[in-house]
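cron nightly-structures :: item 1 of 1
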Amino acid sequence: MKLLALTQKKSENLVYLECIAVFLLMILPLIYWIIQIRSSHRILYQVSAMFTGWLIWTFVEYVLHRFWNHSKTASKNSPLMKSHQHHHTHPSEIHVTHAQRFYMILIGVLLIFLSLLFDYYLNFLAGFWLGICWFLLVHYFLHQPWSRKIFPELVSYHIVHHCKQPDRCFGISMTLWDKVFNTGPSGNHSISQRIIDFYFNNPHEDD
């Protein structure tokens, strides 16, 4: 039993390292290019640096969700695993208040202002922080019925992850990394009305 657990842990760690390697191959040339244009194309540099910071967050989000919240070798009794499992069984319960979201966005706006004023590569940090803010907003949106009209692919991925294939569809604010690492929906991932009702907490509606 211990040997099996050790083998699973090594396999999971290998996949984790492969994901990081692919990400670095994608992102490092972009960062190098951004640094090179810093003095000659200031506006392009600032926009690109913020975008890259945001992109880095989306990968961090994917990794945390896939390898921390859904680790096959982590203890199921850890607070992190218990909290995430509770969210899976009670998808409409999201423990982030509107006030917390507001203050995070306020900090994001301040970071953007400081990065435009002082530079010093704060643009990357501003983009990363805004990525976190967008993640918190989008996660709330994805659990509202109206979001199916605005973010159809994201909602579909999230419902599949919650209710059909918890070992796939780890991206929350975007689906890019699921496509890069082939963890999007697989096989029969049709979503019935019963699943939709459970996900959006509409227990009185029938198939």
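cron nightly-structures :: done
The first helix runs from residue 2 to 36.
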